[in-house]
Amino acid sequence: MILFSHPTLNANSKALINGLLKNNILYKIYTCIAIFQGQLFFRLGENPKLKDLKRRRLDHNWKSFTLSRSFFEFGRLLASKLRLNYLIKHEKGLFCIDNVYLKQDKWVADNLAKAKKKGVFGVYAYEDGALATFSKAKKAGLYCLYDLPIGYWKSARLLMQKEFEINPAWSETLTGFNDSLEKLNRKDQELALADMIFVASTFTKKTLEAYTGKLSEIKVIPYGFPEVQSKKEYLPLDNRKLKLLFVGGLSQRKGLSYLFEAVEGLQDKIDLTIVGHKAVQNCKALNLAVEQHTWIPSLSHDQVLACMCEHDVFVFPSLFEGFGLVITEAMSQGVPVITTDRTAGPDLIENGTDGWIVPAGSSAAIKEVLQNILENPNLLKQCGLAAQKKAQNRPWSVYGQEMANAISLLEISK
After folding, report:
1. CB of 140 closer than 8 Å to CB of 123
2. What pLDDT is recorded for position 39?
3. Residues of the chain with pLDDT under 70
């Protein structure tokens, strides 16, 4: 059996849990906030100011498997809503996300001895929340299964450092260089202790080539697609503009400057909508760019999916992405995607058949695809239908089963 640890339980972790449950290899789920119908947190989630709690509602079938400690994560959510930024300051605030992960890690580590007595053979944990757990697990003779959801930090710095030189006007938006040496060392120690490393894209695996030590097996298992619920209506481009959409954090890590460059000179043929929060508020280049297009600061998940359906093409020009769930979301809605070779795109998309893969950092490559679509508008329906068919063939349940299969083989070998 596997002890599963994740502080916030996102879509991919939930799919994995379902796979573990289905295959009878789940021992317990350790998380921060677990909400089941009828509980206090369930009722608190009805308050508009605490609506984010609704995202923490779990399947009632998980209740007997779930253990939670909510103090620090609830404090983080509350401090964020009340804008008490000193409480969630990066690595320093009492309720910062770093502290949430560290507290979770220690809690799980303290319960491993008891778990082993119950027949647990391994523990599954995620980046930044695994060091104490893996250190104890090694001493107890348990497998350490590690999930790296985004690329390796050294590769990120090597690749993104170039953007400071190429696009200095956008450098203010590159906020991911604030981790302390202590935190970066913890990441490396987690990797060193892992008996198997799970990643969701070939690109993420490639970034680990920058790791200087010896690593255990790295297994690439792409995430699943959201459920396909309806077919998209493909409208002709006669007498209207091509509708492009981007969804994500507004920073240069997402390759935004290259997207804006790509649509320059095409404004009479293309409408671009940008959905997402600005990484910083005072970047002149970003502020000027979004003023020239339609900018929506925030949408709920359901609203994002609806917005995708209203557009012709989804563009995700990210320069460094562990996966990019928005890619699978758009494809599930029948919307073809243009993305880069530094996302999960190459694992999901057959270039020119159900979407397009372009080199990261190339506005010319994006523009070339856009011009091809404008000249051959039938590609929208052709690639959109193919994208949705691919989504139908790989629902989240397939990801969960593939992960469970890989973990089950470890149990057999042990």
Report:
1. no
2. 67
3. 38-52, 411-414
- Collapsing DSSP to helix, strand or coil, 268 comes out as coil
Find where tokens 């077919």 sit.
231
Place of tokens 């778990």: 115
Give the residue from 351, 347, 298, 302 showing the smallest Cα distance to 329: 302
The pTM for the full model equals 0.93
pLDDT tens for each residue of 102-147: 999 999 999 999 999 999 999 999 999 999 999 999 999 999 999 9
Interacting residues of 307 by C-beta distance below 8 A, sequence separation 6+: 245, 247, 273, 275, 296, 299
pLDDT of residue 175: 84
**C-alpha dihedral, 175 to 180 to 186 to 189, nearest 10°:** 90
Q: Which residues sit opposite 295 in a β-bridge?
A: 274
pLDDT digits (tens, 9 = 90+) for 345-359: 999 999 999 999 999
Q: Cα-flanking dihedrals φ and ψ of residue 140, to 5°?
A: -90, -5
The token duo for 286 is 């970003």
The Cα 68–Cα 49 span in angstroms is 22
Cα(414)–Cα(404) distance, integer angstroms: 15
Minimal CA–CA distance to 109: which of 81, 85, 144, 80? 144
How many residues does the structure list for the chain?
Answer: 414
Amino acid identity of residue 18, one-letter, is N
For residue 160, the SS3 value is helix
Burial class (CB in 10 A: 0-12, 13-18, 19+), 291: exposed
Instruction: Confirm if 146 and 190 have CB atoms less than 8 A apart.
Output: yes
- HSE-CB of 53 using CA atoms within 13 angstroms: 24
* pLDDT value, residue 45: 62
Please state, in angstroms and rounded to a whole number, the distance separating the CA atoms of residues 364 and 368.
6
Is the CB of residue 360 less than 8 Å from the CB of residue 341? yes
Cα 248 versus chain centre, distance: 10
CA distance 79 to 71: 12
Residue pair 395/19 in contact (Cβ under 8 Å)? The answer is no
- For residues 110 and 143, what is the distance between their CA atoms, to the nearest angstrom? 16
Residue 148 burial (C-beta neighbours within 10 Å; 0-12, 13-18, 19+): buried
